[in-house]
Hints:
By secondary structure, this protein is mainly β. It has helices at 5-12, 20-23, and strands spanning 37-42, 48-53, 57-62, 68-73, 81-83, 89-92, 95-98, 118-124, 130-133, 136-140, 149-153, 156-160, 166-170. It has a six-stranded antiparallel β-sheet with strand order 5-6-7-8-9-10, with no helix packed on it. The protein has a four-stranded antiparallel β-sheet with strand order 1-2-3-4, with no helix packed on it. It has a three-stranded antiparallel β-sheet with strand order 11-12-13, with no helix packed on it. A hairpin with a 5-residue loop joins strand 8 (118-124) and strand 9.
Amino acid sequence: MSFSLLNLVHTLHPTPPINPASSSECLQTLEGHSSSVRSVAFSHDSARLASASYDETVKIWDASSDECLQMLSIGKTLNSISFDITDSYLHTEIGIIDISALSGSFALRTGSEPYNPKYRSLALSSDGIWITYDSENLVWLPLEYRPSCSTVLEKTIGIGVGTGRVWICKVHLNTC
């Protein structure tokens, strides 16, 4: 016995499903990346949208207009971005990017060069050669330890490498 998905949905939920064509609208289209977008995230207050692209940039947009507020030159494609609870930082797989310069609302001037990001705390350089702290090089990574993927959480970095190995590094800094 076969039946359509619509019949199955109607059986599970007697209220008819919403027709997306009649109930949604495109509010705006944000244009400006030179390649496909890999990841997007709303700020917690929904005032901004961040987009990470294969063009190796992150753009911060005003969600109520089509204005690009900030463009960051990352140097690699980011697969995952999210705002922290204060909306002052972007969490990424290579570390936390400080975007607090956007505390006041301003639009990026047309033709402006992208900013180089300032990373907060522990991170990986965009080329995967360094473990950094507050954007300063800390530990140089030999070729066999360089990431094909990574994650950073507080003082710990997890790195997947091309050989199939995964290694975890916990960093303790002396503050003397």
